[in-house]
Amino acid sequence: MRQERDSMGEVEVEETVLWGAQTQRSLHYFAIGEERVPLSVIHALARIKGAAARANSQLGLLDRVVAEGIIQAAWEVAAGEWDGHFPLRIWQTGSGTQSNMNVNEVIANRANELMGYPRGSKNPVHPNDHVNLGQSSNDTFPSAMHIAAACAIRDGLFPAAESLMEQLRRKITDFDGIVKIGRTHLMDAVPLTLGQEFSGYRDQLRQGRAAVEKYLEGLHALALGGTAVGTGLNTHPHFAALVCGMLGEELGLPLRIAENPFSALAGHEALCGLSGALRSLGMSLLKIANDIRWMGSGPRAGLGELQLPENEPGSSIMPGKINPTQSEALSMVCVQVFGNDAAVAFAASQGNFELNVFKPVIAYNVLQSVRLLGDAMSSFGKNCISGLQPRKDQIEHHLAQSLMLVTALVPSLGYEQAARVAQHAHRHGCSLRTAVLELGLMEAPELDVHLRPETMIGPSGDG
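^ that's the sequence the OP posted. Answer follows.
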């Protein structure tokens, strides 16, 4: 053990860890649950600390040697080399102060170690005076939340969405000539092609991606420079602009200082809006997953229009059973995202005066939604959509048996006579063609022209 010190006194810390007194206190007082602060937030905080050290050195506020030590240690943390030294739960102070200090302490101890000084010495690098120079947890933590979310969307969610849209595009082409019965209210409707059906899925994803992209601009605005309450006390007037510029160049993001630092600390509109967009994307994905599950149901006692990929056994007791597991996994992800959004909406509403104090739970839920949706879309595209095959015999059987093809007769017979045909066919268990002929409403040659499903998949008439 070694002795670490903070403003409240000495605390014993294991010699093997890089954190200090404040992190150790948090471990003791916030032993709640197992959900840790996302490492992407930790890595973003480390990037902020490295850029802050560069900026403060350029501004003449930080010794060059000290700055270099901080920059090297921060780079190591951002690269994930010390991930095991960030043990804190999200159920802590609502500003994220303990996690900000966890990062400060690890970087300070590591920087001192690199410079030949023992851990816990706080000399020549101090976690507050040097690593946290020009900053407050109140502006660094929300900035890290934005950076982590923006990177996760760019590097994970968007590539997954684009890959799934491409898989769907291929199916649109492959399925273009397959005419099937449509369904509304889970009941038979008029025909369309399987390709047309899948084009709807792709467009739903396009809209979902566009909704998420709408909130990226807000994520690029950082609270840096606001320090404790938004006034910028104890920071250099050029500090925030320098740090944003450095971070933007390093990450390839158009980062900027938030227009109003007071709202950047007290509110989380960008993250709350993003969470709502993720919920909408989840809503679309749930609809798609359920449609695929319905069309693959059976294979003999269900709709059975699609052959789902056979990835793994579906039952421990029923041999040969295959289940729509990719649809089920995606559906559960969507349900989790809906719950996450409810938590984010409530948390984002809880700003009091100059600070929202629900920041860790907002970060955790938004980042979990981004990660889950990205992973689930990748899995669904690779393990389900890419291997889908139409069961053409079943599709043709359902099409031939449907009574709603009678809709094509409405322009010739009128609505009420067409309804009479459908009712007659249903009551007597015969085809529409037989019903029309038995009722004497149309001659066979003319009837055969109208009852062709392939002519019903688009607008009709001269107009």
